UniProtKB/TrEMBL annotation:
Belongs to the methyltransferase superfamily. It comes from Lolium multiflorum. GO terms for biological process: methylation. Residues 454-484 are annotated as: Disordered. It holds the Pfam family Methyltransf_11. The keyword Ligase does not apply. This is Methyltransferase type 11 domain-containing protein. InterPro entries: Lys/N-term_MeTrsfase_sf, Methyltransf_11, SAM-dependent_MTases_sf. It comes from the Eukaryota. Residues 62-163 form the Methyltransferase type domain. One of its GO terms (molecular function) is S-adenosylmethionine-dependent methyltransferase activity. Gene3D superfamilies: Vaccinia Virus protein VP39. Keywords: Methyltransferase, Multifunctional enzyme, Transferase.
Length: 731
């Protein structure tokens, strides 16, 4: 057996290049074999055990190269072996070497990412380094995914895909999810010669093609292989398998799992080409890099398939303003929509803040390739999938102000009236809302406030200052409940459901807050991010014992908040302009010094503190819409921990574009903070995280009682006792 010289290896700058492989094999010359890793003596026993009794099986060896694998198997009695490689040089050499000695073995020049075999042609596909070669980190996953799709396609039901691999993390990140649904997977380490522990450990992964949609946990034999296995490599693999098995267990737990589009393509819910009456699943469409936006969606096959349908498949878009209505938010209501849409399959797509000002044609163009993969098979119907849409919910819109800030970018202040607010058809009861929109973040509705009628005394006080405005706009709001001049912001109203989650989560510190009220102490509350000032104004009125300081980077936000959203400051509510990260870092150092043994300088060092991070991010490349990635980096989290002393709450409004980014944020918080909780209302894209450095001040064991304590302190109504049921401790 030959070894690879530096000159030979230099020919393989790119393992995915046909020309490079032709050059490699031409330089080596013909007549001998070459193994990248895992010699025949090492893999013979586990492979023979796997193939026992299957001498008549059809075996495919993709990317065969000049390995001895095929000839050794042939000599053991496995005659129906087909070898493919895209290098004409090596196929010609192997055919010349084996045509007479092994006449039944076949050799073909073929790209293993584009195989020319019918579906279900083989009982075994034996891959020895082929997947690894396609998965060079700088190349990405495209070729690897194409190859795996082909390998799965050409296997018979019950067939086995056997992969000899170094099991590097980027390979497992593709391999394990791709065989999650409908495959039984096991893995073992391959022993090195003379039981020595090789620098590069080879693993044998076996995937058995089973029933579509069935999920099995992975069988690992790596602990059994410890005596001859490179355990440094093996431990990394074991960790990856543990994480994958957690995901697989969640799919078998009966919980309503949120699938990805790729999960469905892999058969997570069965064959997508076939309508299954009454099938309903929740999923996320789109991901960073493959689409402009991500979308929450519900996949539904009509319960009654005996009627006449207008469409075999349709898309129904639900705007953010209507997402909480019973018709769209409840499963029962969604089935009503399916029936009324007269579609055999309906994909209900929910828009949220990320899509607020996006052009609907752009949304449809973005969705079209995503929903195409969910279309059932109807050969006679070649029409494109139709898009249906509920009204965007805005009955009337009046733009009050447009301005561009050097820091925040273009902003819009508008008054809107939604259609059928609270289901009330009466024109006299129409409600008007004032919204602040950040155009930089795909039209993010940053704040929404309720406008209500002023009392007669307020109206008289404001009449003179508003008279000029009234003369200009007196005809703009006919038919609404009062003229615009008699309307003011209702600061007792929470326009964002995640704000309710923030209030609810304060139950975690209810006893400490109660003690502060009893003693007449103020509770230090810092909010990073002013927006339109809705949250700090609500907190000031709802919990008057809070001493609130808002940190805002953009001075223009204060101008907008004051002029259009009734924001005001006093001794209880102050605004500091500057970088929120630097502010917290400087405060933490001032309070506690730079040393872990420094004596605290705070006079209230024993009092509970609250720190709220409520900022969006203009940089979506990080995968975070809220907050900016800097607020979840280790340096800031450590400053926040020091800022909170031995107790208190760090509250983060989180909007992640992918589960991987969310998990990254969660893992970082877990490293720094001893306690971590999450609260997310079902219809909300925002998730609110609550972190604390210690149990001090926390209500952990009796959250219902804590919620009742908090509710008793609130001056404004918030459904704390109901929302607290959604609070979850993150282990």
């Amino acid at each position: 057996m030959a070894t690879a010289t530096p000159a030979l290896l230099g020919a393989l700058d790119d393992f995915t290049s046909r020309e490079n492989w032709d050059k490699f094999f031409a330089l080596r010359g013909g007549g001998d074999s070459f193994e990248w890793y895992a010699e025949w003596a090492q893999i013979k026993a586990p492979l023979r055990s796997l193939l026992l009794g299957a001498e008549g099986a059809d075996i495919l060896v993709p990317g065969c190269g000049s390995s001895v694998l095929s000839e050794e198997l042939y000599d053991l009695g496995f005659r129906r072996i087909t070898n493919i490689d895209f290098s004409r040089v090596i196929v010609a050499d192997m055919l010349r070497r084996h045509a007479r000695a092994r006449p039944e073995m076949r050799w073909r020049v073929m790209d293993m990412t584009k195989m020319q075999f019918p579906d279900g042609s083989f009982d075994f596909v034996l891959d020895k380094g082929g997947l690894d070669a396609l998965m060079e980190p700088e190349v990405g996953t495209e070729l690897g995914m194409k190859y795996l799709n082909e390998a799965k396609r050409v296997l018979k039901s019950g067939g086995k895909f056997v992969c000899f691999t170094l099991a590097e993390s980027h390979v497992l990140d593709l391999l394990l999810p791709e065989f999650r649904f409908g495959w039984d997977l096991s893995i073992q380490a391959i022993a090195s010669e003379r039981s020595s522990k090789s620098a590069f450990q080879t693993f044998m992964v076996v995937m058995v093609k089973g029933k579509m949609g069935v999920v099995h946990t992975i069988e690992s034999r790596l602990d059994e292989n410890a005596k001859y296995c490179n355990m440094k490599q093996a431990n990394a693999v074991i960790h990856a398998l543990q994480n994958e098995n957690k995901i697989r267990e969640s799919h078998t737990s009966g919980v309503d799992v949120l699938f990805s589009l790729r999960d469905l393509q892999l058969g997570a819910i069965g064959n997508l080409k076939v309508i299954v009456p009454g099938r309903r699943r929740q999923l996320i469409l789109g991901e960073q890099g493959s689409s402009l936006y991500c979308y929450k969606a519900v996949f539904m096959d009509a319960k009654n398939q005996t009627g006449v349908f207008a469409y075999h498949c349709g898309v129904f878009i639900v705007p953010k303003a209507r997402a909480q209505e019973w018709l769209f938010a409840s499963e029962e209501g969604q089935w009503v929509v399916v029936e009324s849409a007269k579609a055999a399959r309906l994909i209900m797509v929910f828009l949220d803040s990320r899509h607020a000002s996006a052009d609907m044609d752009v949304i449809k163009k973005d969705l079209s390739p995503l929903v195409k993969d969910l279309e059932p098979e109807y050969p006679e119907d070649t029409d494109p999938i139709p898009f249906m849409m509920a009204s965007d919910g805005v009955k009337q819109r009046d733009i009050l102000h447009e301005v561009t800030s050097e820091i925040t970018g273009p902003m819009v202040v508008e008054d809107v009236v939604y259609e059928n607010v609270d289901g009330d058809q009466s024109c006299s009861s129409e409600k008007m809302f004032r919204r602040l929109i950040f155009k930089r973040s795909s039209g993010l509705v940053q704040s929404e406030a309720l406008l209500i009628s002023e009392s007669p005394s307020e109206e008289t006080d404001n009449k003179s200052k508003n008279s000029s405005t009234a003369s200009k706009k007196k005809n703009q709001k006919k038919g609404l409940s009062g003229s615009k001049n008699s309307l003011r912001i209702d600061h007792s109203y929470l326009g964002s459901s995640y704000h309710s989650s923030i209030i609810c989560g304060l139950s975690l510190a209810a006893s400490a807050l109660t003690a502060a009220v009893s003693s007449g102490e103020k509770v230090s509350t810092t909010i990073v991010g002013l927006g339109a000032g809705s949250l700090p104004m609500f907190l000031r009125g709802c919990l008057p014992f809070l001493d609130i300081e808002v940190v805002e980077l953009d001075p223009m936000m204060e101008e907008v908040a004051k002029k259009y959203f009734g924001f005001s400051m006093d001794e209880q509510l102050k605004v500091h302009f500057g970088d929120g990260i630097k502010f917290i870092e400087e405060k933490a150092v001032a309070d506690h010094g730079t040393s872990a043994h420094s004596v605290p300088n705070r006079s209230d060092s024993n009092a509970v503190r609250i720190l709220i991070i409520d900022v969006d991010s203009s940089d979506l490349s990080s995968g975070l819409s809220c907050p900016h990635v800097s607020f979840v980096e280790d340096a800031f989290l450590m400053s926040a921990k020091k800022f909170l002393s031995a107790g208190g709450l760090l509250i983060i409004n989180l909007v992640a574009r992918s589960s991987a980014v969310r998990e990254m944020v969660i893992s970082r918080l877990k490293v720094v903070f001893e306690h971590l909780y999450s609260l997310q209302l079902e219809e909300d894209v925002n998730e609110v995280l609550f972190a604390s450095p210690s149990e001090r001040y926390l209500e952990i064991d009796h959250l219902d009682e804590a919620a009742a304590k908090l509710k008793a302190m609130l001056k404004y109504p918030v459904d704390v006792e109901s929302d607290i049921k959604n609070l979850q401790k993150l282990q």
